[in-house]
């Protein structure tokens, strides 16, 4: 089991020698994952796909990985087969905002309602200047967005599709350098020829090893990558910026999180009682079925009340007509 896990880690790009897989002795099929309350423990990742109108869980699965994003499209396909039609909208958090998922949903003609960060400059960004060969004025540098590393964000770089180059906020070009295929997705790399003397180099490149600001004299330059899904991400980001999409996304949490809250809070399912992936899958499906039965009974009860109210109204109308006659 340990060898199998190490091979899986190696294929995903993790050095299994430096970070060997940990195989739990209590349940070898589980994986050591972070606990939401802190720490690590043998865990599984249960998933569910819920109908937004009825609240009924349409699809479930149990994974032995932390990141469940690979389950998004297969779950949608199973629900499409189950219901005989694809859903109109797919509401999810940012964990399912990858280019591959967005492209897959677009191919299926399903509207992706997920938070997507645009890599295009905002309409009021100083990077959108008339002459891209000139640097952004120094008095506007503070308005240029930064990424998580404190560098100038990718959105400050303007892509010229006709010439297939990026223009940096320092007024220089990043021409095409190379093309690579990573995890089945083609990525194109654009690389600055020289950053030496650029007025923005200290803000654009990471600090030197000694912690001093970058100068561009050590041969380091800025790279920008553009993959095959860049355009579909931009379309999704543009759509998500509209009030309608924001209102749609506000419904995601009640739809997606309510089942987990009920199963944990009411049924007390905070850990699985069985070991082994197959048994855990069975336990999760039976648990979700319990919630679905509750939902179905609630719907039937509501329909019954509506039918009785309609019957009562009809009888009253009949009595009034008979009295009038």
Total count of domains: 2
Q: What is the residue-mean pLDDT, rounded to a whole number? A: 87
The span between the termini is 85 Å
Shape-level CATH architecture of the largest domain: 2-Layer Sandwich
Named CATH topology of the largest domain: Nucleotidyltransferase, domain 5
Individual helix count: 8
Can you describe this structure in just a few lines?
The chain is of the alpha+beta class and 325 residues long. It has helices spanning 2-11, 72-83, 99-107, 201-204, 230-240, 243-249, 252-265, 277-324; strands at 31-34, 40-43, 45-50, 57-63, 89-91, 111-113, 158-160, 165-167, 173-182, 185-191, 223-227. 35% of the residues lie in helices and 17% in strands.
Describe this structure in words.
This protein has 325 residues and is of the alpha+beta class. It has 2 domains: 44-117 and 241-325, Nucleotidyltransferase, domain 5 (2-Layer Sandwich); 138-228, no CATH class. It has helices at residues 2-11, 72-83, 99-107, 201-204, 230-240, 243-249, 252-265, 277-324; strands at residues 31-34, 40-43, 45-50, 57-63, 89-91, 111-113, 158-160, 165-167, 173-182, 185-191, 223-227. It has a 5-stranded antiparallel sheet with strand order 7-8-9-10-11, with no helix packed on it. A two-stranded antiparallel ribbon has the order 1-2. It is extended and about 90 Å long. It starts with a helix and ends with a helix.
SSE map:
Layout: H1 2-11, E1 31-34, E2 40-43, E3 45-50, E4 57-63, H2 72-83, E5 89-91, H3 99-107, E6 111-113, E7 158-160, E8 165-167, E9 173-182, E10 185-191, H4 201-204, E11 223-227, H5 230-240, H6 243-249, H7 252-265, H8 277-324
Parallel strand pairs: 5-6
Antiparallel strand pairs: 1-2, 3-4, 7-8, 8-9, 9-10, 10-11
């Amino acid at each position: 089991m340990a060898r199998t896990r190490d091979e899986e880690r190696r294929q995903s790009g993790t050095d299994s020698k430096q970070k060997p897989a940990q195989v739990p002795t209590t349940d070898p099929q589980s994986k050591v994952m972070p606990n939401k309350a802190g720490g690590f423990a043998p865990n599984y990742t249960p998933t569910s796909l819920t109908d937004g109108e009825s609240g009924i869980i349409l699809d479930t699965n149990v994974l032995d990985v932390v990141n469940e994003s690979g389950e998004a499209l297969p779950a949608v396909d199973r629900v499409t087969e189950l219901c005989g039609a694809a859903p109109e909208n797919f509401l999810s958090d940012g964990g399912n905002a990858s280019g591959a998922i967005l492209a897959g949903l677009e191919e299926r003609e399903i509207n992706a309602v997920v938070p997507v960060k645009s890599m295009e400059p905002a309409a009021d960004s100083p990077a959108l200047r008339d002459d891209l060969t000139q640097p952004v004025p120094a008095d506007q540098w503070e308005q240029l967005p930064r990424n998580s590393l404190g560098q100038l964000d990718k959105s400050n770089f303007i892509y010229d599709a006709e010439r297939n180059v990026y223009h940096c906020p320092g007024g220089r070009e990043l021409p095409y350098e190379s093309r690579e295929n990573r995890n089945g997705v083609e990525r194109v790399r654009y690389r600055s020829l020289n950053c030496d003397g650029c007025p923005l180099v200290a803000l654009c490149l990471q600090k030197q090893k000694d912690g001093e600001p970058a100068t561009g004299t050590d041969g380091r330059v800025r790279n920008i990558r553009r993959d095959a899904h860049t355009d579909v991400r931009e379309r999704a980001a543009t759509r998500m910026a509209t009030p309608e999409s924001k209102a749609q996304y506000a419904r995601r949490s009640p739809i997606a999180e309510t089942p987990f809250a009920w199963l944990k809070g009411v049924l007390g399912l905070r850990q699985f009682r069985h070991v082994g992936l197959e048994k855990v899958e069975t336990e999760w499906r039976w648990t979700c079925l319990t919630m679905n039965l509750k939902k179905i009974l609630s719907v039937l009860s509501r329909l019954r009340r509506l039918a009785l109210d309609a019957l009562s109204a009809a009888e009253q109308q009949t009595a009034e007509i008979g009295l009038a006659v």
